[in-house]
């Protein structure tokens, strides 16, 4: 790996961790492993957080209420297309929805990462320097 590629890779991770550190939702939105079923039973929790009925969710993802109930009970597994629709309406990643990620990374955070990734190398260096300084400051404040 050349120096430029290594620096670019490192910078992406610095931004990613900064955004998780600063923008991640409260611990109450970190789900336990018991909810991480491929059948998306965690969708029940997300649906209730939104205040939606099964019928409302079904309308959003274009399936029947009965199918939503089967997903939530674990009696059926949604297709990747339906799972993607669920992730979109819940505004979470597919990884979070199916349980391969413990952190809720919202779409705002992902957009920021993508925007920084589009910047020129010198602009990225400035962003990374700021992020490093801010992370260090925040960590020091927690120690005091």
UniProtKB/TrEMBL annotation:
SMART domains: HTH_XRE. The keyword DNA-binding applies. It comes from the Bacteria. InterPro entries: Cro/C1-type_HTH, Lambda_DNA-bd_dom_sf, RstR. Keywords: DNA-binding. One of its GO terms (molecular function) is DNA binding. Residues 45-97 form the HTH cro/C1-type domain. The keyword Transcription does not apply. NCBIfam families: phage_RstR. This is HTH cro/C1-type domain-containing protein. It comes from Marinifilum breve.
